Every structure is written in C-alpha cells, then in structure tokens.
Automatic annotation (TrEMBL):
This is Arylformamidase. Pfam families: BD-FAE (PF20434). Residues 79-168 form the BD-FAE-like domain. SUPFAM superfamilies: alpha/beta-Hydrolases.
Amino acid sequence: MTDLLVHKLAEEAALPRTQLDVDYNARATVTVDRFDEIMAQANAISQKALAHYATFKDVIYDELSQQKLDISGTVAGELRPAFIFIHGGYWKALSKEESSFMAGFLQAHQVASVAVEYTLVPQASLREIVRQVRASIAYLWQHGREHGIDPNRLYVGGSSAGGHLAGCVIAGGWQAEFNVPDNVIKAALPLSGLFHLAPIANCFAQEWLNLTSADVKALSPAENLSSQGCPIIVAYAEGEAAGFKRQSIDYHQSWLDAGFKSEIFEIKGRNHFDIVLDLADPDSLLGQALLRLIADNPS
C-alpha cells in the first residue's frame, strides 16, 4: 500500500465510534419493507435458477467443517469457466440458498456458477470463515473437473462481507498451504466489500466479530495484496453507506498502486442490498462487466 493510502485508512479507523456506526450501517440505508422485498426477490430468483440449472447440489468442499457449495450451469463432457459467488450478511446471516441468482444468465453464456456456504458468526470466528472460503477454492481447483468446471478458469465475486471474503481469496500468502497456485483465481468482482478491518473492529460489528489486532492485520485484504494480483472490477451502489464506498474506492486504488488492473463502478439507482440483482440481468452494467471480466481473462 502507498503511504497515502495507509494514512487514509488509519484516519478512518480513528474516527469516533458514533461516526463509524453510521458509516458501516448498511441496513439503515433502506426501509424495512424494501429490505424484505429485496431479500425475497433474491431468494425467489435463486430458487428458480437452482431448480432449472443446478447440476451438483450440496457438495461438501471441506471435510473439517462439512460446509457445502452448489454448482449450476455445467454440462456433461464439457469443462466450463466458473464464477464463484460468496454471500454477504456481515458474516452472520444469509446462505448459499439466496446466492444463485446469476446462474441462468451465466449458463446462457456457457459459464458455470458456484454458490458457497460458510459457517456463520458466532459459530465460527472470522479466521475460520476465511479458511473455509479458501478451502472452497482449493476444492474447485482440485476437483472441479469432476463437476464440469475448468480449474484453470476460476473467477470469484461476493457482496458486502462476501466482498471481503472474495478479497481474502485474491490476497496473497495462503495458496501454498492449500496446494493451489498463486494465480488460482483469474479475475474478481467484489461488490460493496470490506477490505480493511480496522474500522470494523471499532464499530458495532465488533460486538459479534471480536477481532484482535492480529486478526485485523491478517484478515484485511488491503493489507495482504498478492504479488501477482489478478484483474478486478470493484463496484458499489449509489445508495451505499459511506464506509463501504470509501473502502471500495481505497481498495481499487491500492490495486492500481500495486501495478495491477482494476476498474471501479458506482452502480446508479442501486443500494447495498439490491446491487447483486444486477448479476441476474444480462443488460445491466454489472452483468456485462462480469462477462467481460471472464472473457478478457482466460486461463
């Protein structure tokens, strides 16, 4: 990271708790009715997509935790690129069941999709959640061919806490332990993510995360950039809470400063929760950006 970015992140972490509580309260950016409507819509689209396109359901990817993933859009006798989506929910809510909304759209373009489950806080620490998500990538690298996935064409994305976890997947320093190559992920699309955890450790989310200073350093994607970063597209919603906007902009800049490829989009007319629905829309800016990210970064 540049000295300027380090300074900016340190300044943010030092903001008063009352300010950070506002800046990272995504839930306060929409009404209760709108939130419920978005969640119902995401679930309905995902369940319909799973019913039509799921090819492998509830695949155990990690023997230690027994966590599972769903694979959609594969075809017998063919290896397809795969977009791996990691759900949000501040690491304590939601599941893979609401996370296959892009399956139909991608299947139409010969791209498989994978929805990853992980143990939620407080049943697991954030360190364990990160380990599980990285284990899902290792599983797809090692066993993807058994499920119609080309392990040399893995792409990752996620929203909110899932954006953080996608950042942890493209961070450096973990790949050797999991026996995967440093470039196991060819490109990434983090949405409304959290990439520096110091402000999170100083706001209301610390009540369930219980992050130590060592956790903050080890689990912040912005502090653990890979030596060979893949191309990324960072996106956030126009109606985003201020902290999520700042983190997206700073992460994009840190990627550029490291000499890697990054684009950034503010998605107009969307909020922290409904931005993901654009991944089900082939005509949306985000949907087209995802297709381009995959097409432009083959194995």
